[in-house]
Amino acid sequence: MTSKTDMDHDKSSSEKLVLEFKEDTALTEMMRLRVSSLQKTGQKRQDGERLLLPHEAVYRLDFPVQELNFSRWYFSLSGHGRVTITGISQHWTPDLTNLMTRQLLEPIGTFWRNAEDPEESPLKCLEADMQEFGERIAELAKVRKVMYFLFAYKDGSTAANLSCTIEFIPEK
Q1: In the 8-state DSSP scheme, what is residue 160?
Q2: Omega before residue 54 within 30° of 0, cis
Q3: What are φ and ψ of residue 114, in 5° steps?
Q4: DSSP type of residue 100
Q5: Which residues are CB-contacts of 129 (< 8 A; sequence separation ≥ 6)?
Q6: How many CA within 13 A on the CB side of residue 5?
Q7: pLDDT digit string, tens, across residues 107-138
């Protein structure tokens, strides 16, 4: 997790592709409606179905090119809290099928700042998992133009105090 200014010296900006995770509010709402529909009718979820939890939202990453190599993550979180990012495999077509637990990718990305940590302290993360997760995203980008993610906000974090992007180096 290096600052953007440090990285500008490493590579020229024409060699980098920084993509922002964007909340897919329509898809998040569709998944929330599924939960409320099941609650209203008293039905149970489909076997293996993954329902959206109240502290989660669906995000998307759009790939303008497919041949990418993972470089690094940029995230900032004002205040404290924990954010978990779970990738969803290419087998999910949200307009046609329910999300199933078998479609969730590992490892997940987690970063946090504890309540007792000063706000200016760096975010903590499991660096090996974040590296592997970024590499998995680059692999999946080869066959996808868009990828979906579940962002879970815990321990005081919210979407409003998060910025999360991922940097790739396009293959030549």
Answers
A1: G
A2: no
A3: -70, 155
A4: B
A5: 107, 108, 109, 110
A6: 0
A7: 999 999 999 999 889 999 999 999 999 999 99
